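Tokens as discussed.
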């Protein structure tokens, strides 16, 4: 199975349709800060390309796509595997005020 999960920072969830438009999003942090945060939660990410990290364990793989700007306002996670690691994603997001959206369903996790 596969999932596309969009990480962004918002004070409160807004309708997904609004996000499909050109919306200005608050910063998640600098590229280096986001790499550090993701690496702490998912140890062993391959950052050969800092704009695209690759993580794999025995149950799923994740490609983290952030672009190459110095300031990052969103992360797209391409997840493939046996299950969606929802708990891990929410544990990553919650303390930082981030939201996670299942792009295919247009729903917040």
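Sequence:
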């Amino acid at each position: 199975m596969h999932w596309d999960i969009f990480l962004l920072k918002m004070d409160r969830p807004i309708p997904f349709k609004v996000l499909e438009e050109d919306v200005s999003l608050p910063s998640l942090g600098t590229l280096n800060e986001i790499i550090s945060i993701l690496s702490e939660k998912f140890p062993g990410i391959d950052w050969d390309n800092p704009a695209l990290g690759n993580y794999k364990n025995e149950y799923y793989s994740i490609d983290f796509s952030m672009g190459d700007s110095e300031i990052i306002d969103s992360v797209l996670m391409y997840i493939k595997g046996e299950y969606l690691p929802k708990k891990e994603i929410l544990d990553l997001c919650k303390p930082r005020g981030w939201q996670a959206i299942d792009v295919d369903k247009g729903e917040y996790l």
